[in-house]
Design goal:
The relative contact order is 0.14. This protein is α+β, with helices and mostly antiparallel strands and 140 residues long. The strands form 2 sheets. It has a 3-stranded antiparallel sheet with strand order 1-2-3, with helices on both faces. The protein has one domain: Gcn5-related N-acetyltransferase (GNAT) (Aminopeptidase), CATH 3.40.630.30. The protein is built from 4 helices and 6 strands, in the order ααβββαβαββ.
Amino acid sequence: MVANFIYNEFVVTTNNNSSLEKIIEKFRNTKQNEFPITFIAIEDNKCVGTISIFKNDLKTQNDLTPWLSALYVEPNYRKRGIAENLITTVLHKVKDLGYKTIYLRTEHTADYYKKLGWSFEKEAIDERGQATEVYKYDVV
């Protein structure tokens, strides 16, 4: 289910060449204390959201690590604080792993992250030539 969320929300809509099978394999390799790490939100015995921590989510910025990535909440469950709870879980995990800063990339949700205390780091171009913005959050 998580792989389907990510495939439909982030792969299909961005013309990324990844297949659903590659996404499924990526999530099969998630771990608890090393990247990639994935969390899911369960409500009513149903997976309603997900978020991941990747070593890198922007290949043109290899010097930055780790990255919050793949935040998704089912539309019928939005505006209930689920996304914020997932983000908080990631921030605690990153701090527990000894990191002081976490990064994310966004093309259209910058205002949401700014509202949550993330700060603009830089503009960047991804490996497909798409403009994106990099934000950071200090977890110390």
